Amino acid sequence: MKKLFKRGDVYVWFSGLALMFSLLMIAGLLLLIMTKGLAFFWPSDIGQYTTRDGSTYLGQFKGDEKIPDYTGNTSDENLLTRTRLKIGNRDIYGLDFRWVDNSNIKNISYPKNAIILERREWGNFHGYLKE
Fold first, then answer.
1. SS3 51
2. What is the tens place of the pLDDT at every residue in 82-121?
3. DSSP three-state, residue 69
4. Could you please report the per-residue DSSP string of 83-128?
5. Phi and psi torsions of 27, nearest 5°
6. What gap in Å lies between CA 45 and CA 60, rounded to an integer?
């Protein structure tokens, strides 16, 4: 065993193994950054959400969450779900995001002529191009 350590072969193998793990961790980190980060540059579809009271919201789906019902029950079968929409147009609505209860959503459509424009002020513009 002493002869093996004197020649240094074990240290070469340990160095190679450490290099392999380092390269695997770097590749994994780059893969994680690409999967999470590239979605920022690839915008999601813009949907038109119509609620039961007749309101329509044009926006991007940004997530949903489960909320307990009004009786305070927290079991999974009693949880309600609501959707977070990025509606933009802060100059018109005064806010960028809106929560909509899924039980109130009547229809979701994805119009082909709806656009999103990034503005310097008042948030993104969500709407339709007129001219």
1. strand
2. 999 999 888 888 888 999 988 899 999 999 989 888 888 8
3. coil
4. EEEE---HHHHS-SEEEEEGGGEEEEE--TTEEEE--SSSS-EEEE
5. -65, -40
6. 6
